[in-house]
Amino acid sequence: MVRVEFLGPIQKAPLELEITNLSELATVLQKDNEMSQWLKNCAVAVNDTLVSSLNVDLKDGDRVSLLPPVCGG
Amino acid sequence: MLYLYNGALEVSTILKEWYEQEAESNYGAYIPFVGTVRDEDEIEGLSFDIYEPILESWFSAWQERAKERGAVIKMAHSRGDVMLHESSYIAAVFSPKRRVALEFIDEFVEDFKASAPIWKYDLKGGKRIYALERSTAIKGSGILGEKS
To answer: What homologous superfamily is domain A2-64 in, according to CATH?
Structure first.
């Protein structure tokens, strides 16, 4: 299982998904209406490291985080 | 060093502590930036969420960059609510000479705004409203919206 966490203002409970790469996660989330406003502006981290493409394999126990636009200070 | 606090920052205490930590370190320059919540747009204050694991790795990379230039970077930020005229953010650079510190604080604060995983909310009419229009998408955002 891969755990998917939605950070900051995204009001969504974590998901536990049977997926093997980020492309599969994109497919799942693109069908989710509550996520439509976030997918185009969220960064993605796998096990707390930011990634820049969907070409990332996932294994059991991995954790994916979605980070919406930021504004510290 | 990275310091996170619940609620507003005690500015004078933090600046004094940082000064004392480096008083004998032979730095010629100490340049702090203090961010204060302004009274605007009828807000009562601001509120912050922080994702600490990625903030820590982002900050560590900046500590390394500071070290390469013979400098030290320190940062403090609030979690939760910070009211008008209180401070939510302090960053400071210590360096042997002023030029490095002046340039470094500018680069650091700009990247902080664009990359640090912190989310800001306006406190208005008893509500906590995400400040989307003032926020910046982290570099590389949007991949999950791509058609695979």
So the answer is: Beta-grasp domain (3.10.20.30)
